[in-house]
Amino acid sequence: xxxxxxxxxxxxxxxxxxxxxxxxxxxxxxxxxxxxxxxxxxxxxxxxxxxxxxxxxxxxxxxxxxxxxxxxxxxxxxxxxxxxxxxxxxxxxxxxxxxxxxxxxxxxxxxxxxxxxxxxxxxxxxxxxxxxxxxxxxxxxxxxxxxxxxxxxxxxxxxxxxxxxxxxxxxxxxxxxxxxxxxxxxxxxxxxxxxxxxxxxxxxxxxxxxxxxxxxxxxxxxxxxxxxxxxxxxxxxxxxxxxxxxxxxxxxxxxxxxxxxxxxxxxxxxxxxxxxxxxxxxxxxxxxxxxxxxxxxxxxxxxxxxxxxxxxxxxxxxxxxxxxxxxxxxxxxxxxxxxxxxxxxxxxxxxxxxxxxxxxxxxxxxxxxxxxxxxxxxxxxxxxxxxxxxxxxxxxxxxxxxxxxxxxxxxxxxxxxxxxxxxxxxxxxxxxxxxxxxxxxxxxxxxxxxxxxxxxxxxxxxxxxxxxxxxxxxxxxxxxxxxxxxxxxxxxxxxxxxxxxxxxxxxxxxxxxxxxxxxxxxxxxxxxxxxxx
Length: 533
Ligand code: GTP
Fold this sequence. Notes:
The protein is of the alpha+beta class. The protein is 24% helix and 35% strand.
């Protein structure tokens, strides 16, 4: 397939708007998977199936025959196309995964639920795609629902993103209505991948995982040239050279093809021993050539940290093994060893966000049978001392006020939160945000009944219970997304909890001065009841 007959695209959507269902229908329509295989194909992890959310992006290649009218012959022309569908997670915590998937695409289907309309993650995902210069095809899905109002959604898309209403496709991934327009639109509206077929091979490493039998499997997008079995390729990041043992496409399982050409997305197996050698965002290129590395991805930022300890201290080795295996396939978690006087030996783990942390814990238990105790999540604070040196504190217990150095300033990370709510809930949401030390940035209406609020909030204030409270005060209607923003100066203190006069390191927290009294009292109260019982 020459690049002109290749299209690389993603599906982006707010959680639950039907992205995975639509992906499944497209795979069925092209005969890539059989109808009625049960669970969603691209959601492979057990936790994804259980929670119905996509965590890790997956890729599948489809073949599709596209027919167009030929005005000269008054007949039709049919050509076969190779379409690479790159799945993306919808949840706020995984926007890193989303931008990673978008790097290999030239276009995206922006799926919006016809009844719910644009939601917080629709906005976040739209801007990720827009900033990557992708062609965006709006798909208004679930038009079979009795409350569907596609015209209202079209008006929202026009108002928020300046999308022409005539561009929107109307579909039901449930009944199949409108689905036949989707792939022709992909072919006609999304440009083919750019690249030079005659140059030495150059590719972007999109993802990697470890397979017990095959070793490290890398997902790659070929930008220039071709890669064949037996070729030698080098990593721009490490300078190491590998032989290509196997190369092919995901159709949807690994299907060897012996070669991948310019514009294609597929897999490559080399002699890499560990996924640590396969740096996501790295450029792999023909060995012994000097190439310009491709622009990589934004590096992962760990925003939520928590201690992970074995429930039974003697299980440290088993936990260590389980964490090592899991991080082999989730390079976005950072892990360092730590010791607590209360909990023994364990690990300090850094996550992209709260859901990412929950998913990690759940996978540790489900896939590796590890029973764990995790400490209260915290965010990375920065403290400055009198001598102007700065430290980043990821474990509150590590902050020592009596180390002989005076702390002169503290900073905490903030986020810009986008909240979409029916207008009757604006009052309570504003109250919640000010209680959480938020600063209003924007307050607009996206249609007659829905408001959009933007707040700058300290990250600390949203990692514990914010989302649940937001959902409960808005009867479940609020949608929420956030992006990292800058650090702000803040009046922070360390709060120790003493048991029998001794501070318990695992319970230390860093907290805003004004909140310390209230939160401390509540915590001690709970603890007292717990210890008494
Ligand atoms: P994440 O993977 O978490 O991002 O969610 P998603 O956007 O992939 O949503 P998913 O495909 O899992 O669909 C969410 C729910 O909506 C499921 O219960 C689907 O069966 C249902 N659904 C999907 N498409 C349609 C549709 O066209 N009509 C109706 N009525 N329901 C649909």
